[in-house]
Design a protein that fits this description.
By secondary structure, this protein is an alpha/beta fold. It has ten helices and 26 strands. The chain has a five-stranded parallel sheet, covered by helices on one side. Helix 2 runs parallel beside helix 9, helix 2 crosses helix 10 and helix 6 packs parallel to helix 7. It is globular, with a radius of gyration of 21 Å. The protein starts with a helix and ends in a 5-residue tail after the last helix.
Length: about 425
């Protein structure tokens, strides 16, 4: 039985040593494995899979397709919004993967997948053949789900749920907000990327406003009645920010049904109109478009997978990792994607070498900062059973509700250590 205390000790060791939690047999295991692997998406899941396939079997030809030569992480983008980090500190390149491990990087956009012919077509027109394909497509947005909110509207009312120019736009709007202005965040219904993310975001924006614009207020309009680590967040908000943050749940008319981007107004389900000084709207989500093009998405908009290997249940020889997958109770998080990438690496190497896949186990920890010295976390361990991902009984848990300030500060320090360790593990780079 893996206790929460044992898990957190392991995670702490990972943060200090940059080790590889939850990877089956991380040493080299060529076993005669050879073939061509194409990986689409260079984020937490895709870059991990590329690196660990080459670590296990350097003889395998691995091509990583990523539209940008530098990847900016959603984790820690909230610290940038809160004034605790600069933007480049959340950016990472692929030099270690290419120079140390021999991964071929193709900086292009994957446009189509032929599952029967085992090819990926790029925007440039180039076609890549594969024996195994790993998709790490992240998320796309359901632009038709909310009246008035589409790609053009997002240039006025940012979602900032993909780190990059949208994050910088939201930061600029926050800096331009008048003292005494209202920041509104519209939070989506489940499932979506990073369940605690919207609430960490308002926490750190509250820190920024309290420091620089203390007369301002925050309103959360939520399309659900409960959220991850809710009790810990609300207690932290009260302790650090008093009545600065107001949360309106679904049952109290929190669901946004219409966005007027030009006026920065939103209308809720029962006709209430709210006007913001800065409006951050996070729309409903689905798997990244290349998953749909590959034919691995079902009617939910997400990707069903075989739990043991994260291979698509719909198209052979395509594995999918990260936010795009249906892998509940494992959340859509960077840490989940990282451990999924390692399990997929082991499964791909085993398959190309004619061996059975090792038994998988995954771990996840979601750290959140409510303030610079106030951290909270939720952790879990997962395994496969009867074709499904299940929680390991008795594992994981959340930060204690009655912890003192010293404990909260240590968890804030662990948050920084986690990010340093996982980015070092994946990209071989980390920034202070």
């Amino acid at each position: 039985m893996i206790s929460r205390r044992t898990l957190l000790k392991s995670i702490g060791a990972t943060a200090l040593a940059g080790s590889t939690l939850s990877m089956p047999a991380i040493g080299r295991a060529d076993g005669g494995a050879s073939g061509r692997v194409v990986i689409v998406g260079g984020g937490f899941g895709g870059a991990t899979a590329a690196k660990y396939i080459k670590r296990r079997a350097p003889s395998i030809d691995v091509t990583l397709v990523e539209a940008s030569g530098r990847f900016y992480t959603c984790p820690f983008s909230n610290l940038y919004l809160g004034g605790l980090r600069d933007f480049e500190s959340i950016g990472h390149d692929y030099a270690e993967l290419t120079e140390r491990y021999g991964v071929r990087l193709v900086t292009d956009l994957a446009r189509d997948v032929d599952g029967a012919g085992r090819t990926v077509t790029l925007a440039s027109g180039e076609t890549l053949a594969y024996d195994k394909l790993v998709l790490a497509p992240g998320i796309d947005f359901r632009w038709d789900a909310i009246e008035g909110y589409d790609e053009a509207a997002a240039e006025l009312v940012p979602h900032a749920w993909k780190a990059g120019p949208q994050t910088q736009l939201l930061k600029a709007q926050l800096e331009a907000l008048e003292d005494g202005g209202l920041f509104i965040l519209g939070a989506p219904a489940d499932p979506f990327r990073c369940p605690p993310g919207p609430y960490e975001r308002v926490s750190l924006i509250a820190h920024y406003l309290k420091t620089h614009k203390p007369k301002s207020k925050i309103l959360i309009l939520d399309s659900k009645d409960a959220f991850s680590k809710q009790g810990l967040f609300t207690a932290g908000w009260q302790a650090l920010y008093g009545d600065l943050i107001e949360w309106v749940p679904l049952s109290q008319d929190g669901k946004v049904v219409r966005v007027d981007a030009a006026s920065r107004e939103v209308e809720t389900e029962f006709g209430t109109v709210h006007k913001a000084g800065v409006l951050n709207f996070i729309p409903p989500q689905k798997a990244g478009f290349i998953a749909d093009a590959a034919g691995v998405v079902n009617e939910s908009g997400w990707v069903p997978i075989k739990a043991e290997t994260f291979e698509s249940t719909q198209v052979a020889d395509i594995h999918v990792v990260g936010d795009a997958t249906i892998a509940a109770p494992m959340p859509k998080s960077g840490f989940s994607a990282n451990t999924q990438g390692k399990v997929v690496a082991a499964a791909v190497v085993a398959a190309l070498g004619g061996d059975a896949s090792p038994e998988p186990i995954w771990a996840n920890t979601c750290y959140s900062l409510i303030g610079p010295d106030y951290g909270i976390s939720v952790a879990g361990v997962y395994r496969a059973a009867d074709g499904k991902v299940i929680s390991v009984e008795g594992s994981g848990g959340v930060s204690p509700a009655e912890a003192d300030a010293a404990f909260r500060k240590r968890e804030a320090e662990y948050t920084l250590g986690w990010y340093a360790a996982i980015t070092q593990d994946i990209w071989g780079t980390t920034a202070a």
